[in-house]
Amino acid sequence: MTPLSDIQEAVITRLQQRITVIDKAAVEVFPDPDKEFNLKNPVGAILVNYGRTVFSQPVEMLDITQDGRMVWTITCVARSLVSNKGVLAMLDQVRQILTGFEPVADSQFRYMYPVEEGYLNRVDQLWWYYINFEVMREHRQEIE
């Protein structure tokens, strides 16, 4: 089974390789809840976060098999809303880059697809928007 950190790193690397709206260094892991977020890039940042996995009802035979929908949240933060380097341009580019992306070369995983996006907040003159992606995976566990 692929660890969540491997998938997270694959998503970050993909965005860093293809993003043009902002500096590649501004793509990072969403900060821990107890740490204050500091915008390091003057334009903005793209933050990657694992949200949850929703599992289907199990099918039992020699093992338990379930489909899991993993949700990954990409948060875009920028000082501008609508400029060519604004948060909406980031959101559009993230959607293009990650839709259809297979985060790991593993037969258990399928491609990523967007399921929801929207406005989060405006704090200290920073616009916060998010886009959620799902990636399906098959989970198998032996019955003991």
Summarize the structure in short.
The chain has 144 residues and is α+β, with helices and mostly antiparallel strands.
Structural class: alpha+beta
Mean of all residue-level pLDDT scores: 87
CATH topology: STM4215-like
CATH architecture descriptor name: 2-Layer Sandwich
Distance between the termini: 18 Å
User: By CATH's scheme, which homologous superfamily applies?
Assistant: Phage tail protein-like
Give the ordered list of helices and strands.
HEEEEHEE
Radius of gyration: 17 Å
Total domain modules: 1
- By DSSP (H or I, 4+ residues per run), the number of helices equals 2
Strand coverage percent: over 45%
Unreliable parts: none
Furnish the topology, listing elements before pairings:
Elements: H1 4-18, E1 27-29, E2 44-55, E3 59-60, E4 63-78, H2 87-98, E5 109-123, E6 126-142
Parallel strand pairs: 1-2
Antiparallel strand pairs: 2-4, 3-4, 4-6, 5-6
